[in-house]
Amino acid sequence: MKRILVVEDEVKLAALEADYLKSEGFEPHCIANGLEVVPWVRENKPDLILLDLMLPGRDGLDICRDVRTSTDSRIRDVPIIMVTARVEEIDRLVGLDLGADDYVCKPFSARELVARVKAILRRGRMPIASALAMDEERHAATLDGKALDLTPVEFRLLAALASTPGRVFSREKLLERLYEDHRVVTDRTVDAHVKNLRRKLEEVRPGQDLVRSIYGVGYALEL
Ligand code: CA
After folding, report:
1. Which fold has domain 3-125?
2. pTM for the full model?
3. Per-residue pLDDT, 205
4. If exposure means fewest CB atoms within 10 Å of the residue's CB, which of 8, 30, 54, 136 is most exposed?
5. Hey, where are the domains in the chain?
């Protein structure tokens, strides 16, 4: 049974999340105070953490940093879904590069939340899945053993997204990685390159959309 830590100071919401997780076969544990999180994680090593941003004691940002900088890999690599009350906050969080695996905005449905939990547990925190191989020196990439015919910009875009599969990258963040010369380009440029990259990935995996777009936030690679 997968153990999910629910960090949430709204008691009713925490209970709702826990009930739904239980009904889906998970073993939830709720914590309302930020100070209690890291010691509990050390002791119990959960399979995933749902982490509210605003908490009494210690906020979600600090907790996320603590977890990701832990010397114990079983703690450091635990998947984290950050939960925030404002959609604008997500863009800032993505920019901070906290190493969260996903972001959910309140209000969310319990069903949606559990779907995200399942997706991340299924995928795991494996760095670039072996399905995707990238050779930085030769600027060559293969998916499922098939060569991808990418332009240099598309290669950099894929490399950026693949640095943390599942993580949402803002367009701004992606632009930084695409053009080293900081030329003036618009967000729409990123969208255009994503569109081409998607098409090329889909040639290898027909019917699958490996680049997930999160409206108003950015893109994530789902392998
Ligand atoms: Ca809160």
Report:
1. Rossmann fold (3.40.50)
2. 0.60
3. 85
4. 136
5. 3-125, 128-221
